[in-house]
């Protein structure tokens, strides 16, 4: 999505990025103390308040109080605010944004510059370059870490990427733009000064990595395949499936008209025609409980379901039956409501277990054998960094959910995955649950630096061009060539250094062999119902190679699969080569 090099003042003598020494154009130095920038645009703000958040600034009249004429970086002025982030009823991460516009004129054209630079001190933030062509808020942006000292931030336009949830749009800088500083990570002070367009950005070689021959690991032996009626059912219905991703798990759907839905009957029909065999429907079930917060806290015992939930579930049930696709109803609690405190709360456990009983009761007369209930997707999802759900707490809740379902439906297959994002490493530590109709799931995104290059939510938004499989001919000694920057987490840099060992088919097979052997030892069915590679910044030939490799591995290891992302365009049509890569047969 973008590139950033953060340079504390004391490192200026060994500058690796030279920005302000090249010709530049001042956007704002804050020395006039007003809310107009040096190019004629104005500063403004927006926040999460209209959508239920309570994020705010300590400076109640920030346009008068934030423009300080003392204390900037070696200057007479700066912008200084104190942000308080408060989620309240906002569904996503809380935020407060400061922005200014630059109108294209004969004298000012952003496309004439290599990037922008500014001095920063204070909390982490995200910089966005907004252009009119982007209609769905998927702007080109960059995350900037916190800094205790004045730090020079240089953003190279050529390294910017979109965040990936919307339509892919070329960055058009031959245009008027808006520059946004989005404060969305922690509360605290935020200061910036000396914002400039820069004509040239120079880099010095760092020799961060070595170019080594690919190192293929020795194979891990697989004990054998599972043999049971439930495994046969899983293989028949739960392979070659897709997720209806980034929709009902992330939002409460309010329109009862399927024409307004991201996924409707036409999309389900298309997936069947393209050779897919199953649909996983991620949906946050508890969003449709009346007085939801009171029910989840135990303050209110009776659960009343809003009719919209049944409209959604019944529609998916009918459409998948009509087009001969299996259906998995996946309780996908995306908003962090299942957090560490909730995992230890008996009242919360009772509420969500009862919710599953109500859903099961709704489908109790549905005789199709290819309908599956998935208990809760990825415990730990959307929790703050470092916060986890203990495996014992999650296993307790999962068993309660199964017991609740069994009160009304004795044999409906359910799907269980373990903590830490359905980690296979966590799953193999556990014993199977006390129910013979459970299919065990894991999620697989290895090698992670390939599958998540360009993913802003993993702090890998700057990354691009990682090949698959690893190739010495396409590797580099420079982190920068793959968009790995100073702000990229150290664990990502470590994975890049190891990629010559991990960017290959056998490494992935060896990882899967661990969970496959666990399933064999316990004679339980297995599915990987989330995997894929983000298509933001990977090359199409590498995507095809990866998906072909994964398809081969799943067939060789007799593991069912449902893909999360990477195989379709914005019209839900398979990308070139994907049908062949995954052995999908058109109907």
Q: What key phrases describe this protein's structure?
A:
alpha/beta; disordered N terminus; eight-stranded parallel β-barrel; 587 residues
Q: How many E-type strands?
A: 24
Q: What proportion of the residues is helical, as a percent range?
A: 10-25%
The radius of gyration is 26 Å
Largest sheet: 8 strands, antiparallel
Please sum up the structure shown:
Strands 1, 3, 5, 6, 7, 9, 12 and 15 form an eight-stranded antiparallel beta sheet that branches. An eight-stranded parallel barrel has the order 17-18-19-20-21-22-23-24, surrounded by four helices. Strands 4-8-14-10-11-13 form a six-stranded antiparallel beta sheet, with no helix packed on it.
List the helices and strands and how they pair.
Layout: E1 4-8, E2 17-18, E3 24-28, E4 43-47, E5 56-57, H1 62-65, E6 67-68, E7 78-84, E8 96-102, E9 115-122, E10 125-130, E11 140-144, E12 147-156, E13 161-162, E14 177-183, E15 188-198, E16 202-203, H2 229-237, E17 241-243, H3 265-273, E18 278-283, H4 292-296, H5 307-322, E19 326-331, H6 340-343, H7 346-362, E20 371-374, H8 391-406, E21 414-417, H9 419-422, H10 424-427, E22 438-444, H11 448-451, H12 490-502, H13 505-522, E23 526-531, H14 540-557, E24 560-563, H15 578-581
Parallel strand pairs: 17-18, 17-24, 18-19, 19-20, 20-21, 21-22, 22-23, 23-24
Antiparallel strand pairs: 1-12, 2-16, 3-15, 4-8, 5-7, 6-7, 7-15, 8-14, 9-12, 9-15, 10-11, 10-14, 11-13
Helix pairs in contact: 7-8, 13-14
Kindly describe this structure.
The protein is of the alpha/beta class and 587 residues long. Helices cover 25% and strands 21% of the residues. It contains 15 helices and 24 strands. The strands form 4 sheets. Strands 1, 3, 5, 6, 7, 9, 12 and 15 form an 8-stranded antiparallel beta sheet that branches. Strands 17-18-19-20-21-22-23-24 form an 8-stranded parallel beta barrel, surrounded by 4 helices. It is globular and about 75 Å long.
């Amino acid at each position: 999505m973008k590139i950033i090099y953060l340079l504390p003042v004391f490192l200026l003598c060994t500058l690796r990025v030279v920005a302000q020494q090249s010709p530049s154009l001042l956007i704002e130095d804050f020395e006039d103390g007003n809310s107009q920038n040096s190019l004629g645009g104005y500063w403004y703000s927006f926040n999460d308040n209209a959508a239920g958040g309570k994020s705010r600034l300590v400076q109640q009249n920030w346009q008068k109080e934030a423009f300080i004429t003392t204390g900037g970086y070696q200057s007479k002025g700066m912008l200084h605010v104190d942000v308080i982030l408060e989620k309240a009823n906002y569904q996503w991460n809380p935020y407060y944004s400061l922005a200014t516009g630059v109108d294209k004129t004969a004298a000012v054209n952003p496309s004439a510059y290599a990037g922008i630079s500014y001095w920063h001190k204070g909390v982490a933030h995200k910089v966005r370059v907004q252009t009119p062509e982007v209609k769905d808020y998927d702007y080109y942006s960059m995350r900037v870490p916190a800094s205790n000292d004045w730090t020079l931030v240089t953003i190279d336009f050529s390294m910017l990427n979109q965040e990936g949830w919307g339509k892919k749009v070329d960055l058009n800088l031959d245009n008027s733009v808006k520059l946004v500083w989005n404060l969305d990570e922690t509360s605290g002070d935020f200061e910036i000064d000396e914002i400039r367009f820069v004509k040239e950005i120079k880099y010095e070689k760092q020799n961060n990595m070595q170019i080594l021959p690919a190192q293929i690991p020795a194979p891990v032996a697989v004990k054998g395949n599972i043999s049971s009626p439930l495994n046969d059912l899983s293989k028949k219905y739960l392979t070659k499936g897709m997720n209806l991703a980034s929709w009902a798990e992330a939002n409460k759907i309010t329109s009862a008209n399927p024409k307004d839905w991201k996924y409707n009957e036409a999309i389900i029909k298309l997936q069947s025609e393209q050779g897919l065999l199953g649909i996983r429907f991620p949906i946050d079930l508890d969003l449709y409980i009346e007085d939801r917060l009171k029910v989840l806290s135990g303050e209110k015992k009776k659960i009343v379901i809003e009719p919209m939930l049944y409209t959604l579930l019944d529609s998916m049930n009918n459409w998948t039956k009509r087009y001969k696709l299996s259906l998995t109803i996946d309780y996908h609690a995306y908003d962090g409501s299942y957090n560490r405190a909730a995992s230890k709360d008996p009242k919360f456990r009772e509420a969500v277990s009862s919710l599953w009983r109500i859903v099961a009761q709704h489908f109790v007369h549905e005789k199709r054998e290819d309908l599956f209930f998935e208990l809760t997707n990825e415990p730990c999802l959307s929790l703050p960094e470092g916060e986890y759900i203990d495996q014992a707490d999650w296993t307790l809740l999962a068993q309660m959910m199964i017991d609740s379902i069994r009160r009304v439906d004795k044999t409906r297959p359910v799907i269980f995955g373990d903590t830490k994002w359905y980690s296979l490493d966590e799953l193999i530590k556990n014993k199977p649950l006390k129910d013979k109709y459970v299919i065990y799931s894991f999620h697989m995104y290895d090698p992670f630096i390939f599958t998540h290059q360009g993913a802003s939510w993993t702090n890998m938004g700057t990354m691009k061009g990682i090949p698959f499989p690893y190739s010495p001919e396409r590797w580099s000694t420079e982190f920068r060539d793959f968009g790995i920057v100073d702000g990229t987490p150290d664990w990502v840099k470590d994975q890049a250094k190891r990629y010559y060992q991990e960017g290959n088919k056998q490494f992935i097979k060896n990882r899967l062999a661990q969970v496959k052997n666990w399933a064999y030892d316990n004679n339980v069915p297995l599915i990987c119902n989330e995997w894929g590679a983000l298509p933001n910044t990977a090359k199409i030939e590498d995507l095809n190679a990866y998906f072909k490799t994964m398809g081969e591995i799943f067939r060789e290891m007799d593991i069912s699969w449902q893909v999360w992302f990477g195989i379709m365009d914005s019209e839900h049509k398979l990308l070139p080569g994907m049908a062949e890569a995954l052995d999908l047969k058109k109907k």
